[in-house]
Amino acid sequence: MPTPLPDLVTAAKALEMFAKKRLTSRVAALETAFAGQGSVDAHSLLGQSAVTHELLASAYQLKRVAGEINVVIHAIGILLCLPHILEPDERVEYLSLGAGNTGKAFDLETNLRVAEFKFIHWRGADAVRQNGLFKDIYLLAEHVTTKRKFMYVLETGRPLDFLRGGRALSSVMAGNKKLRDRFQERYGDQFATVGDYFSAKGAVVALVSVAEFLPELSDSIATGEDDASAGGSDFAGE
After folding, report:
1. How many domains does the chain have?
2. CB 150 within 8 Å of CB 213
3. How many angstroms separate the CA atoms of 72 and 179, rounded?
4. Which member of 36, 90, 169, 220 has the greatest number of CB atoms within 10 A?
5. Structural domain of 12
6. Order of strands across the sheet with 148-153?
7. Cα distances (angstroms) measured from residue 33 to each of 46, 49, 53, 144
8. Which residues are CB-contacts of 25 (< 8 A; sequence separation ≥ 6)?
9. Strands 205-209 vs 113-118: parallel, antiparallel or unpaired
């Protein structure tokens, strides 16, 4: 009979107890303890090591929830930014906080602006994130409106390096046929690189850092002191 999935608090506590604050060391110790053991001794060691079906259920439960964590970060991040970016006479017309196709053009539209948000930590050359950023910039730039257009990010340096750079548009749009066809229909071969397009059309989109409003997402906190390349801190679902 399958082990019932625990609630999140119970699951988190079970994993915390198992890892004992240093998961790598814990796993290494288990590798050593189980080396050379047969069935009977392995069964005994499972109990001594607190390796149980309940522990597996706890890990699985957290994994299921973790699959949605990027959506949570995106939604909460946008909401926490609103008091800082909205002007006194500005009112929200709609928000799109979830993942996927919501039927709304942008993450935020007010009576004064349209905006997209990306809470991403860039790690140098990052094709997937570059592709997503270009798509958002393009859709904002081409949107017909008299409202101001904003692209909110955690930091502007590396995104701007990409937007002003020489990466080929054919590469950036290779995995998005709909965007590629839309771009080709409008511009044909007029622009060869991201920098070509951004220098001609990108000025209508303000690239703005919201890091000061969301210190919890600062690079130093998100990566940790010991692992500056931790993949889980990049918010890949953006």
Report:
1. 2
2. no
3. 27
4. 169
5. 8-66
6. 92-95, 108-110, 113-118, 148-153, 205-209
7. 10, 9, 19, 65
8. none
9. unpaired
Q: Rounded to an integer, what distance in angstroms lies between the CA atom of residue 209 and that of residue 219?
A: 13
215 Cβ partners below 8 Å, 6+ apart? 221
Q: Is residue 3 part of a domain?
A: no
**Whether residues 12 and 111 fall in one domain:** no
Q: For residues 214 and 235, give the distance between their C-alpha atoms in angstroms, rounded to a whole number.
A: 14
